[in-house]
């Protein structure tokens, strides 16, 4: 939304309490997105704690902040858009009268087949806290329907995390980040290629971003991939399909892709794997989680 309103002609300041954007992603993705949004003229206030917001004269609004030393303690503007997460409204369902349980965040508890603690009652979509995406909600329906009416035994735990972040250029994500994989103890190989080294990206005049993949060094399975750049939200499906098929990364590495596309450089990228520094792995394991 910040990028969209900036392109409409508004002056935009994004206030973030963390020290970087998009905390769920690896730092280099956060940094890359921050850089190209700054190039478009968006201002950022990171490591900011909001104290209060109040109206100004002529219907303006001011946000007062606790900021890094040397920065102004306030940001003024005509409008304020809040994006602070969501709380499920399951409290309106009077579930205490049904025997259906919720967790400490208010999400309905379900098993691997999306059945609640009351047999025969299922919870699909955002209310179960297992995705909060349109595509995961639809997959919830597929799991329940096919298990009930087609005799299948589909499970939520078989689902690979995937999503798109629709900045321009977009981010496509499949599977784990490097941080998540290191935390789980995997020994990793990593491949990366900048979009500036991809001919199709140059032809389209959009060379910002990069694509990367992490590989289990022991099994050669693809554990995660990210494509930040032109077509990234579509290109990520190639990685995702290989991950669902359970094939080693070599299948993509040795494949022949259409020229001229962004995807044609994925095999080339996978020819240049580098081991992830074990020091980073140890730091990730020892790092204490943030408490909010």
Characterization of this structure:
With 292 residues, this protein is α+β, with helices and mostly antiparallel strands. 27% of the residues lie in helices and 19% in strands. It has helices at residues 2-8, 27-39, 134-149, 178-183, 199-203, 232-245, 250-253, 266-270, 278-286; strands spanning 13-15, 43-45, 49-55, 61-66, 74-77, 162-165, 171-175, 188-194, 210-216, 222-228, 274-275. Strand 6 and strand 7 form a beta hairpin. The longest helix has 16 residues, at 134-149.
Structure summarized in a few sentences:
The chain is an alpha+beta fold and 292 residues long. It contains nine helices and eleven strands.
Name its key features.
292 residues; alpha+beta; flat; disordered C terminus
Number of helices: 9
How many runs of DSSP E, i.e. beta strands?
11
Run of helices and strands = HEHEEEEHEEHEHEEHHHEH
How do the strands line up in the largest sheet?
Answer: 6-7-10-9-8-11
Straight-line N-to-C gap? 25 Å
């Amino acid at each position: 939304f910040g990028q969209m309103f900036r392109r409409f002609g508004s002056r935009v300041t994004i206030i973030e309490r963390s020290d970087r954007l998009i905390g769920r992603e690896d730092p280099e993705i956060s940094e890359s997105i921050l850089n190209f949004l700054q190039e478009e003229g968006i201002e950022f206030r990171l490591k900011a704690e909001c104290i209060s917001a109040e109206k100004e004269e002529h219907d303006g609004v001011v946000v007062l902040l606790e900021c890094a030393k040397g920065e102004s303690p306030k940001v003024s503007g005509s409008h304020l858009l809040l994006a602070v997460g969501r709380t499920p409204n399951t409290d309106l369902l009077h579930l205490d009268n049904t025997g259906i349980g919720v967790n400490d965040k208010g999400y309905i508890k379900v098993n691997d087949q999306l059945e609640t603690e009351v047999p025969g009652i299922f919870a699909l979509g955002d209310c179960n806290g297992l995705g909060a995406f349109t595509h995961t909600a639809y997959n919830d329906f597929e799991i329940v329907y096919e298990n009930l009416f087609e005799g299948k035994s589909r499970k939520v735990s078989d689902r690979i995390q995937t999503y798109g972040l629709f900045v321009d250029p977009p981010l496509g994500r499949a599977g784990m980040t490097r941080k998540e994989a290191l935390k789980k103890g995997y020994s990793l190989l990593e491949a990366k290629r900048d979009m500036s080294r991809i001919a199709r990206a140059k032809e389209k005049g959009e060379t910002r971003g990069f694509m990367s993949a992490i590989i289990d060094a022991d099994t050669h399975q693809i554990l995660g991939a990210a494509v930040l750049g032109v077509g990234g939200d579509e290109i990520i499906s190639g990685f995702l399909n290989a991950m669902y098929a359970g094939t080693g990364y070599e299948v993509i590495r040795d494949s022949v892709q259409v020229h001229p596309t962004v995807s044609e450089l994925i095999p080339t990228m996978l020819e240049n794997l580098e081991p992830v520094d074990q020091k980073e792995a140890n730091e990730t394991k020892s790092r204490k989680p943030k408490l909010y």
